[in-house]
Each structure stands twice: as C-alpha cells, then as structure tokens.
Amino acid sequence: MMIHLLDIKTRITCLALDGKILFSGSHDKTIRLWNLNNNQALTYFSGLDHPIQKLLVIPETGYLVSIGTGLLLTWDYPNKKVISKFTKPETFKCIAYLDRALFIGTEENNIHSYTQENNFEDTDNQYQMIDVNQEIDDDYMKKIIEQNQQILQEFQQQQ
C-alpha cells in the first residue's frame, strides 16, 4: 500500500496512527489526516507557526499531540481545535507517553514531563541527564520492565 501525496511539495517529518487514521506532520507547518481504508486525505490543519517535529496519539483520550520548536499542542482532532498549548524556549526533538504523562526530549539535553490530569499545561517537571555510570534503583527498573511488557501484550492483543 502506498499513499501518494498529490500536490504536496513539502517533506513529511513525522507520522502517527489512531486506528485507521494516519496523521502526517510536515515541514510546511501542516498536519494532515488520512483514511487508511481508502488512502484518501480527510482534512488538514494549517496556519501553525512551527514545522511539525513529532506527533503522538494519546491512547486513553484519542487526543493528538504535536511538537515543534519549543511548542507543544494537544488537539481534539475530530473537532479541529487545540485544547492546550505549552511553550518553552527550547527545541523539542522527541516525545513519549507513559502512565498519563508526556515526556519531551530537547536539543538542550533536557527532558520535560507534563501530566494529563492538568491537560499537559504548565506543570512541567524537568529532568537532568544522569551520568550513565550512576546506579539505577532495581525496583524502579523492574517496574519499567513490567510496564513495557504490559504495553507489548496489549499491543499484541490488538493485532
């Protein structure tokens, strides 16, 4: 299967999935939604003030999260509206989600976390990079491994 992007002359920077909807983020500051059943474009969001770096769908809510240079937006995409916005004077580069919290890595070697309970708004926790030789608590690592195994099992059951 291939989706051909007719008349789109920008590079795609990221992809995310929510069921049969594929999201593409682009350097031209747009997010496009694609129907995977028929490979057709559904809609797009434009007028953003930053190129889209990464996209992520939050499983519990279906909200779409986009990040760009110092900007995090949480979207209620069926209604085409932004429900939260957070800015930071840093360059956001990657995003992950676990236990109702977003983690955002920056080019400045920081990791920020935002909780879903506060709509991912200004409740920033900042983590500093740790020395790789520093010991990590065994109980904490066991918890992370168990959580990852549970996520993998849930994913496999959905397939």
UniProtKB/TrEMBL annotation:
Q: Which Gene3D superfamilies match?
A: YVTN repeat-like/Quinoprotein amine dehydrogenase
**Classification via InterPro entries:** WD40/YVTN_repeat-like_dom_sf (IPR015943), WD40_repeat_CS (IPR019775), WD40_repeat_dom_sf (IPR036322), WD40_rpt (IPR001680)
- The WD repeats lie at 18-44
**Stored PROSITE patterns:** WD_REPEATS_1 (PS00678), WD_REPEATS_2 (PS50082)
Q: Which residues cross the membrane?
A: none
Query: What keywords is this UniProt entry annotated with?
Result: Repeat, WD repeat
User: Protein name, please?
Assistant: Uncharacterized protein
Q: Which organism is it from?
A: Paramecium tetraurelia
